[in-house]
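Memo to structure team: turn this sequence into structure tokens by end of day. - J.P.
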Amino acid sequence: MAWVIEINAALLGIAIAWLMGYQTYEIYTNEFGEFPLVRYFDLILAGLPFIMVAAVEILKIPLCFVVYINTGFRIRLIFSIVLVAITFITFETLATGFERQFHNISTNVEIPQDKLVALIKKIQFNKDQIKNKEIVSDESIKEEVEFRTGAAKESRDEAVNNMKEQINQYLDLGGGTLAEQKEHK
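Reply from structure team:
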């Protein structure tokens, strides 16, 4: 019965490693169209701990059997220490594997989340633009046109008056002779 449990635990670990790796591979290829070589190493490193733990799980039963059948204290102590060390290695390896898997899963969530944040920013920008456009009414447009037309007319009239004054100054420069010639014409 113990063998069945250990073999099932080992197979479950291998299945989890393969399924999670394949899921990460699919998401990357769907999002980016390719799967970079660096990500293959991530998948392998995330899956190896599960395979190693599977092998160690199967070794635990023979080690427990050695501890159980030996009557010598030193042999029992040595194999008990080895069994505790293997259990610790199993725990540490699982923790590392889970961390790698968490990273792969987090990446699967971060990609759509980043796209969502970018879309939300674009939507807010468009809403602000709409709000700015709605502030401008037909009446405010008419007022702006009238103001600018009035300012342009004033500027034109002022320029015409300045030019007329310059003409008069040029005519008066000749000491009155130019002014008299103007009157005769």
